[in-house]
Write a structure and sequence with these properties.
With 482 residues, the chain is mostly helical. Helices cover 51% and strands 10% of the residues.
């Protein structure tokens, strides 16, 4: 069997879109699953719009996702000589001809066709010129393009790995240009020439390219090259059912990285946009699981929906599974960026910091959300506004703080869940609502009205820190009352 060779071929005219990232991922997974090669080709022939910054952004996006390529990057712009040579081969073999019709002439004929309510199609008038006339006009420097002569067969089709049999009537395809008058190739010419040279065996791309495929198949055959397989992936839509765009939120892979999404979560999420392993399966999968399960049989025909809430949920699942040592650098970067703690404090309270991460990673959906919950475990500061709201009555607040202190001191072992239950029992025995006790105690332990549950807080802080904070809260309330 031929070793699979697949490619991702982005144009460096902007950021790495999540749709492009999904295409790259599917190609990469297929190559890895079947022991093939994944190649990267930068289609930089549009010199006016292609930028080094965009090329760099694409590389960085792929690397962040963990998608490596197996051979040096191919730059399409460097292959111009081969593109021209292949066009010349088409001329020499009679599969193409020179067309001297100007853009002005073609536009006039197109408008005339519209007036007569007919569809414009090039009438092959230049294909009627004899060789001597063509040679004379070329020698005279008259501008011309090279047009491919569409074969006089009924249709051109292929068996698509996603959609099954697809066929286009050849009568509906006009003789298309493969080489412009300035000698640069049209997209279909450049892509086919490059795919042949790179020995690509499977072209997997978005289904917006379906209309290009019959033209490329014609070029493959005219150039005497073996056809690859084709797989056209349905588009990604927003939750409103329309094609994904910036109106739906972030569409660049880099944006989601900055939103606190883990690369393994993004890979997992993208993999399930247009593919399913079939049967009952756990949606949360690591990269090696995706590689082991991925195959073309699971590619779906219908469009996928990019659901931000689903992505955040999946990110939360991966956060919970990620070791603290791997999360710590990401959260530290976010904390220092937010300015909520200092690096010195993180180093000083390293044990408490890691304990907090170990507990909080299972309660967060993004790195930012995780980072926002950390500071209360590393430094104790009472928020005056929150204190005034949670402790409106000093006498009642002090009674609750003392109740919590007594329950904690009486506990034979430090079991946060048991202590929380003791607080609930004490509240009921005194005829108080549970919220009348747990809220003020949580305020006393964290200095904030918003924090994880008491058992989680007690588990991270430990006995000594918890009792010290209750004492500090007692002093704060008593001082405020005085």
């Amino acid at each position: 069997m031929t070793t699979p060779r697949l490619r991702f071929a982005p144009s460096p005219t902007g950021y790495l879109h999540v749709g492009g990232a999904r295409t790259a991922l599917f190609n990469w997974l297929y190559a890895r699953r079947h022991g093939g090669q994944f190649l990267l080709r930068v289609e930089d022939t549009d010199k006016a719009r292609s930028t080094d910054e965009s090329t760099r952004a694409i590389f960085e996006g792929l690397q962040w996702l963990g998608l490596d390529w197996d051979e040096p990057v191919v730059y399409q712009g460097a292959n111009l000589a081969r593109h021209r040579a292949d066009a010349e081969r088409l001329l020499a073999s009679g599969h193409a001809y020179r067309c001297f019709c100007s853009a002005f002439e073609l536009d006039a004929r197109r408008k005339q066709a519209e007036l007569s309510e007919g569809a414009f199609k090039y009438d092959r008038r230049c294909d009627q010129l004899d060789r001597a006339e063509v040679a004379r006009r070329v020698a005279a420097g008259e501008p011309s393009v090279v047009r491919f002569r569409v074969p006089e067969v009924q249709s051109t089709g292929w068996n698509d790995l996603v959609h099954g049999e697809i066929s286009f009537p050849n009568k509906d395809i006009e003789d298309f240009v493969v080489l412009r008058s300035d000698g640069t190739p049209i997209y279909n010419m450049a892509v086919t020439s490059d795919d042949i040279a790179m020995r690509i065996t499977l072209v997997m791309r978005g289904d917006d390219h379906i209309s290009n495929t019959p033209k490329q198949i014609m070029l493959y055959r005219a150039l005497g090259a073996e056809l690859p397989q084709f797989a056209h992936l349905p588009m990604i839509h927003g939750t409103d059912g329309k094609k994904l765009s910036k109106r739906h939120g972030a569409t660049a892979v880099a944006d989601w990285q900055h939103e606190g999404i883990l690369p393994q979560a993004m890979v997992n999420f993208l993999a399930l946009l247009g593919w399913s392993p079939g049967g009952a399966f756990d949606e949360v999968m690591a990269m090696d699981e995706l590689v082991a399960k991925f195959d073309a049989d699971g590619l779906l025909k219908k469009a996928s929906v990019f659901d931000t809430k689903k992505l955040e949920w999946m990110n939360g699942q991966h956060l919970a599974r990620t070791p603290v040592d791997q999360l710590e650098p990401l959260v530290t970067t976010q904390l220092l960026k937010d300015g909520t703690v200092t690096r010195a404090l993180l180093q000083e309270r390293d044990a408490a910091y890691r304990a907090a991460l170990g507990v909080l990673r299972g309660r967060s959906r993004t790195i930012m959300e995780l980072a926002s919950q950390v500071p209360i475990f590393l430094q104790y500061r009472i928020d005056p506004a929150a204190a005034a709201k949670v402790w409106p009555d000093a006498t009642a607040a002090l009674a609750v703080i003392d109740l919590a202190r007594d329950a904690m001191q009486a506990a034979p072992t430090w079991e946060p869940e048991a202590i929380e239950q003791a607080l609930r029992t004490a509240a009921e025995q005194r005829g108080l609502g549970v919220g009348k006790v747990l809220g003020p105690v949580r305020m006393a332990l964290t200095g904030s009205a918003s924090s994880p549950g008491i058992s989680i807080v007690l588990g991270v802080l430990g006995r000594d820190e918890s009792l010290a904070r209750l004492a500090a809260a007692h002093a704060y309330v008593a001082g405020s009352a005085a």
